[in-house]
Amino acid sequence: EPEVTQTPSHQVTQMGQEVILRCVPISNHLYFYWYRQILGQKVEFLVSFYNNEISEKSEIFDDQFSVERPDGSNFTLKIRSTKLEDSAMYFCASKKRDISSPLHFGNGTRLTVT
Amino acid sequence: GENVGLHLPTLSVQEGDNSIINCAYSNSASDYFIWYKQESGKGPQFIIDIRSNMDKRQGQRVTVLLNKTVKHLSLQIAATQPGDSAVYFCAENFDNNAGNMLTFGGGTRLMVKP
């Protein structure tokens, strides 16, 4: 069964550094998402992406965050200047265009900012 | 794992028994609901979904019930197995386009005793 794959599985970075989290969505999916889960908290929506542009974003997704689909297969989340509070699990998800199809999540990247 | 420290309600059941996990959702305009299972170190895994024009949907060993009057969702797992041990999240969508921005609940930890 096709899967959403994310790399790396764990990223450690120093405060103020830029990080790029990578995702390969399922190949016939058209909507792409980033969610995050801070330790001990709920899964939170960050951003959705469709047709090469952001379709929705949450308050969390401020100017420090950006997303890109640089080619036909990858979907990336960049955090320009990481803060300690950015430490979390970051999940990529994708879905078909059909409104009744569910989101499929990857196994996440654990980001630790020191 | 990412749910360590989260003060999750916990349901402990004996292997072979049926499990019922409950969820109260927040928005009466939500029209699509999903149950996800999250095992330690993995991303949310789709279990079953239901649209607001239905009140029951069955899958393999799982049934979702929706009560819109009281904004309540439940997941029933028949003949619970040790492999069902995980954290279960309900999620709701109240965006009527295909963007599917999901709002997750706080989760319930299911522990299956052999």
Which key phrases capture this entry?
heterodimer, A: 114 residues, mainly beta, 4-stranded antiparallel sheet, 11 strands, globular, B: 114 residues, 6-stranded mixed sheet, 50% strand
Q: Helix and strand layout, with pairings?
A:
The complex is a heterodimer of chains A (114) and B (114).
Chain A: E1 5-7, E2 10-13, E3 19-24, E4 31-37, E5 43-50, E6 53-57, E7 65-68, E8 75-79, E9 88-95, E10 104-105, E11 109-113
Parallel strand pairs in A: 2-11
Antiparallel strand pairs in A: 1-3, 3-8, 4-5, 4-9, 5-6, 7-8, 9-10, 9-11
Chain B: E1 10-14, E2 19-24, E3 32-38, E4 45-51, E5 56-58, E6 62-67, E7 72-77, E8 86-93, E9 102-104, E10 108-113
Parallel strand pairs in B: 1-10
Antiparallel strand pairs in B: 2-7, 3-4, 3-8, 5-6, 6-7, 8-9, 8-10
Explain what this protein looks like in three dimensions.
The complex is a heterodimer of chains A (114) and B (114). With 114 residues, chain A is an all-beta fold. Chain A has no helices and eleven strands. Chain A has strands at 5-7, 10-13, 19-24, 31-37, 43-50, 53-57, 65-68, 75-79, 88-95, 104-105, 109-113. In chain A, the strands form two sheets. In chain A, strands 2, 4, 5, 6, 9, 10 and 11 form a seven-stranded mixed β-sheet that branches. In chain A, strands 1-3-8-7 form a four-stranded antiparallel β-sheet, with no helix packed on it. In chain A, β7 (65-68) and β8 form a beta hairpin. Chain A is globular and about 40 Å long. Chain B has one domain: Sandwich (Immunoglobulin-like), CATH 2.60.40.10. Chain B is 0% helix and 50% strand. The mean pLDDT of chain B is 89. Chain B has strands at residues 10-14, 19-24, 32-38, 45-51, 56-58, 62-67, 72-77, 86-93, 102-104, 108-113. The A-B interface holds A 4, 6, 31, 33, 35, 37, 39-45, 48, 50, 55-56, 58, 89, 91, 93, 95, 97-100, 102-108, 110 and B 2-6, 32, 34, 36, 41-46, 49, 51, 89, 91, 95, 97-107.
